[in-house]
Amino acid sequence: MIIIMAGGKSRRMGKEKTVLEVNGKPMLLRVYEQAKEIDETLVTLSKNTPKTKELCIKEGIDFVETSGKDYVSDVQWLLREFGEFISVAGDLPFIKASDIYEIKKAFKGKSLTGVLPLSIIPKDLKPLIYKNYAIVGLNAVSFEGNAFFELRNFLLALNVNTPKELKLANRIAELIEKA
């Protein structure tokens, strides 16, 4: 099962991120369309995301409501409720089905954290860096272990958290989707 994490508070953006459009399409729909190609997909919501809930209802997307307290609490609750799953951040507008497939294929019961080597990340992007890798919002979640899983799609480093990042995502999408 794939679970799209879309219940956060979006503090840095100042409004719900997953309903914001990148090149005319809400980020949540961009992520959902890629995820559903790979496996059954569910979206997490919370009291923080009423517009995202409206979008899910309108589009017929299955969802579950979590506390929305924080990412770790929500993931722990989801593990208890659903068991192991693939977690995808709802604010990754350039995720591809192939990215999700790769981490799912590698998932053997131990948690995997999706990462990118710093050498492939464009200098304009400022991802979360840990142990010389960029951490991306694609993970395999289990009760056991944790290892890094190296991905190759450098656009996964663009996790849209701020108005500036949204503007950049729109510029990139325009270029990519014209081709």
Alpha-carbon distance between the two ends: 32 Å
Structural class based on helices, strands and sheet pairing? alpha/beta
> What is the CATH first-level class name?
Alpha Beta
Count of discrete structural domains: 1
- What is the makeup of the main sheet? 8 strands, mixed
Overall spatial form: globular
Question: How many helices does DSSP assign?
Answer: 5
CATH architecture: Alpha-Beta Complex
Number-wise, the strands total 10
Within CATH, the superfamily carries the name: Spore Coat Polysaccharide Biosynthesis Protein SpsA, Chain A
Q: Strand fraction band?
A: 25-35%
What this model shows, in words?
- It is a single chain.
- With 179 residues, the chain is an alpha/beta fold.
- It has a single domain (2-178), classed as Spore Coat Polysaccharide Biosynthesis Protein SpsA, Chain A (Alpha-Beta Complex), CATH 3.90.550.10.
- It is 32% helix and 27% strand.
- The protein contains five helices and ten strands; from the N terminus they run E-E-E-H-E-H-E-H-E-H-E-E-E-E-H.
- It has helices at residues 27-35, 50-59, 71-82, 97-106, 163-178, and strands spanning 2-5, 21-22, 25-26, 41-45, 63-65, 85-89, 110-117, 128-130, 133-141, 144-150.
- The strands form two sheets. Strands 1, 4, 5, 6, 7, 8, 9 and 10 form an eight-stranded mixed sheet that branches.
- Strand 8 and strand 9 (133-141) form a beta hairpin.
